[in-house]
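Structure ticket #2291
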Amino acid sequence: MRFDLHIHSNYSSDSNLSVDDILKQAVRKGLDGIAICDHNTIEGSLSGLRRAKELNLSLIVIPGIEISTSDGHLIVLGIRENILPDLPLSETLTIARQKGAVVIAPHPFKKNSIGYAAKDADAIETFNSRCLFGENEKAKELALSLGKPEVGGSDSHLLSAIGLGFTEIDCHRSESSVLESIRKGKTRSGGQIIPPNIMIVHAFRGLARRMRRLSRELHSKIFHIGH
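Resolution: structure written out below.
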């Protein structure tokens, strides 16, 4: 079955995708399952679980989160509660495994990622559709050298990018089977890099978000100075 294990909803500050739109687009793309992995919150993922049932979709939704550790980002699959951000990588790994989760090193060689510390994760994201400069190849080399399971995802913040990166998993139609198959390496990663026109849209949206944030911060400072 084919999964996109790395999607961001509007519960992430850098995405405006609604959960319903993500679910419907995943079905249109012919995916068997997804993981919504918002930054430092499980809420988008839990909403995805709930809405998939309410909409009577056959889509398998794996609960997930992308956590900012003090050493870089981690994806944690199979949990239904938040883990505090900004903890050391080793502590985050321990907490996640105590909760029975599968821990993935996403885009290990991009900025704010854990690099060669990916060796301590359960699996390595060896295809990310937003990795444009050889990061996927480097991640795959690391996974092969360590004998680590490989996964893929779109890292999508835009509707059109969902499914561009994927993981093929030899599993049954259940969350537990998906997670166990990832642990055992019954996976294959693949996909295509996001087309330049979509990357340009994403870059402009990111710039607009930063400008709005800077504007809010400036207004806040002016307000405090005035009072």
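Closing remark: The helical segments are 19-28, 43-54, 89-98, 135-146, 175-183, 196-226.
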